[in-house]
Each structure stands twice: as structure tokens, then as C-alpha cells.
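Workshop exercise sheet. Pairs work together: one partner reads the sequence aloud, the other fills in the structure field after running the prediction. Swap roles for the next sheet.
Pair: D.N. / O.F.
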Amino acid sequence: MSQDNRVPKIIQDFVGQPAVQSVLSFLAFEDWLKKRENDATDWVVVARSWRDDTTDFFTFSVLVSVQEDTLKKILSTNSWDIDTHIGHPMFNKHGEKGFVYYSSNDPENFNGLQFLPFTIHREFHGYIPNTFELTQDFILYHEAFYVPEKNEYHRITDDGDIQPIIRINRDKENRTILIETHHLRDYLAAKKCYLVRYHDHRRLATDNISSYINGEFTSYQGGDERSKFEFWLRTDIPIEKYQSSSRLLGKDVVDPYSEPDKQHTNPFSKDRYGTFIIGRDDQGNELEATCNEDELSNYFTDRGTPHFLTAVYFSREVLGKYYQEPRRYSLSQSYLKCLSLWSIPFDTTSEGLIQVWLGDLGRIPYREQLHWRQFNVTPKGTITKHRWMRDFMAEFADPELDEDPIYYFQTAFDQLQEASKKRYNEEFLNWLSDEDSHAYETLHLPLTDEWKEFDEQVQALAKIVVDSLNVELLSRESEVKIDGKTIKGSIDLLGMFLDHSKVEEDLKLQILSAFQAIQAIRSTGSAHRKGSKFEKALEKYGLFNLSNFEKFKKLTLDIINAISAITEIIHQKGDDK
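Structure field:
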């Protein structure tokens, strides 16, 4: 085995003997030492109180200011420089007869070094388990927030990525706090501090090791350039069935970066920009251009480069990742927004492509540019008329119905709800719960022709309109209720409402058919195994031999006409009254 100078020589001498290798290695904490926790590149344990039958680990961390001789002073001894009460406000007495004074979270000075609390150990006298807390300064530095279902703290990066930076592990009375290494060392750089981890670990073994340590007790020093430990091995204090015990007492150090992460010191700087396909040359080669607006031409400056408002095109799949996380991303008919961090306008062309201006791509984070670049395609077709009107003529313009039926669905939906609220003092379609609101927020024409996405969007549409029909309102207005026989469900009840409203038969069948089509496709295909019933439903509602994109588009257009018709019926009822 390779020699580890942090391991006592007596252990190194004996671990090669099979009879004692296991017990001495265990008592010498060789497994723990090999982990080199203070050098971890992923997660660093900053606090720990973890115990089982044979092991008791305790780790506690503080900050110490960086000076020329900090490490030399810290590692000159294995003893603790502070105690676990650092960070606790308390009263102290100065001298034997001196005055009593109050100290809060003031730095503590020892051996010419300044110590600041990082983990705060809290004791409750056995009433509830002891615990650790982190200094609030670290949490505020990263604007972290607690996620209770995961026992983690997360932070939101400048580009909208959400990262866990603190993990809290609990198992009965055991506690461990880990911090993601990059965020810890970044913070240490800003504070100009080392993190010193103090350890007091103990272990028990049933074997008697007296013959191997030449007595009942021995102690040895160990460590390296960033750690200092003392090991005790003893058999003079047997505990129940355990004849041998050990203790590791000491400390190790986590270094800061040489300087803080640039996201803190210059969060708005960008030093990387992607390039995007903007066309082809006369030989058919793709032409690319940077999206850095400082290098692009504009209305005021001709730099001999493409204009800021150069159309760049993408396949519709580029939006897929954003529909998956409605809490983080919101998409409207012409805008993508990530929280309050960044946004980008876009449009959907008649070719079914997503179109963005070249300069606008430079205003989103670089990692998002890389995402968009994957779906970049050579230009095909041109921008839409409504984008021309909006962006160049400064006139408000809606897309055509066939270009963006989801926009018109949401408009029709809102108009129905408004008319119903005005006429009946309640919505015609019940609002979705917070847990289901994503169905409305992320409703979209399928980005691919995969059945998975088609099924998901059909189920979302069914949840929004079919499942949300206000049964109480329909029953009250039609003076009938669902009985499971003549009126089997909410769509039948809608039919009775239309009859009571004296709607012409052709219009009634058209409205009901739109709801029935969604329900049928959901129940025979999206929510259950597809088979002959699903194929019959496709044929019945005119969806057979259409792509999944066109299937869902037709379902959406039909339901737009249906709920628009219901809105007009409600308006007429109000006028008649």
C-alpha cells in the first residue's frame, strides 16, 4: 500500500499482517483519511455529528483570516483553537473582578489569528437532538433558498440554472452538512479566509490490540501540509464488550480560490458568444455570424458585419426544454422568459420554424446560446407579416389563426371565462389547481411527431376544458343533474345546457363534437393502450392519416370554435335578460 503520512507509523507497520490489518486500519480511521475530505472536488463536509455502534464522528468548521503565516500557526498543533460556542451571543466577564460584557457574533482572536463562525453548533440539553446551522452570511452571499422536501439549499445562477449548494443529511439524531466545493471556495475567496475543519472522532473494537501497541495506551501524530491530527489507541478503558478504542483529534484546511467567481465581481460581463447560421454562400456553404451585438451592424453603425436584425431560424424542438419547467420558464405567443433574469422574443413562421433576431441571441446566457445552436437551421421562408408589423412598423398585430392556434385558444378561453363571470358570477370552466396549472401554462402544438408528446398535450387539453366544465353551473342552468344513465357525464350535461339555451341542433352538435373528440382521443389513446377503439375515434373525428402535429392542431381549432360559440351564447342570454 502507498504510504500516507497522516497515518501513524505503528499502523503502517502492522497493517500488512492479516490478523490485525482490519482492526488497526479501522481504529486508525484509515478509511476516513483516504477520503481526504478537505480536498473534495464535489462536496465538502463542514459539520457532522454521526454515531453508530462503533463509530462517533464529530466535525465542526470555522473561518480564519488569510495571513502569511496562517497555515503555519493553525497546523502547529492538533488541538482546537476555538470551541463550539463560537458564533453564540453570550455574556463574558473580563478578569477576576472585571466588568461583565455582552459579545455577539464578533470575531474571536487567538494566536494572532482572527476566527469567524461558519457552522454553529446548537445544543438543547437532550430535549431535542443537537443540530448545526450555517452562518447566514454564506446563504445570503449565494442568495440561497431552502428546499424542505430535499433538505437542501439551492441557488439560482445568472443564467437561470438552479443548483443545490448545501445538503443536510439527517438520520434520527445524526446530522451532516455538506457544501458544494465550488461555492464554498468562491465564498472563502470573497471573505479572504480559510475554512478550518476541526475533528474529534472516536471508534471502538472488540479485539484487544495491547500486544500491537506495546501496552494499554499510545498516541501518535499525523498529518500533512494542510492537516494535523493526533491518534490515541488504547485498551485501558474497556466499554462493555469493546476492549479497544481510538480517538482522532485534529484539524484540516480548505483553501479559498485566489479570487472570487466573476459572477459576483462582474455579473454582467460576457466574454463568450455563440455563432449562428444566417444563410449560405453561392457555393452552398453555411454562413455563420457571431451574436455579439458589439460586433454587429445596426441602424447607426455599419461595421461591415451582419445586422443586429438578421433573421436566424431554429427547429421547433428548441422550445422543448422550456415547456418542461413552467416554474422557471414562461412562454407566450412571442416571448420566452426565464424568471426575472433573461428573456428573448421569438416568432413561429409559416414554415413551422422558430425565428429570432441574431442580436437578441447575444443577450441570453452563453449556455442558452449553446442550447439554441443545437437546433439552428439554414433559413427557409421569411418572417411573418405580424412580426414585420410589430418590429418594423411599430404596429400591434396578432398572428394568423393557423400560425398560432394556442394563442387563439387562450384568448377564447379568457373570453369565455369573462363572459361567464359577468353573466353567472362564476367561471364556465373551473380554474385549475396550482398543481395542475402547468397544463394551461405549457399547452403547445407538439414540437415533434412523437406519440409521447401528443399524448401529454391531449391530456393537458382534456384537463383544461373537458375535466374543468363547471358541473354545478351547468346543472343549475339546465335544471338537471348527472344521473349516470341519460346524463352520464359533464359533456352530456353541457348538451342539456345548450338545449336549455335553445341552441340550434347543428351548432349544438358542433360544440359537443369538439369536447367529445378530446375526451375520446384521451380515453382511447392518451390515457389507455391504443387499439381499434383509438383508430375508430381518429376516423370519427377526422383525425385519421394526419400527423400528430396536425391531429392536435385540429383538436385545438375545433375547441376554439366551440368555446367561442359558447361565449356568444352566454352573451345572447345576457342580452335576452
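Discussion prompt: The longest strand covers residues 193-205. What would you look at next?
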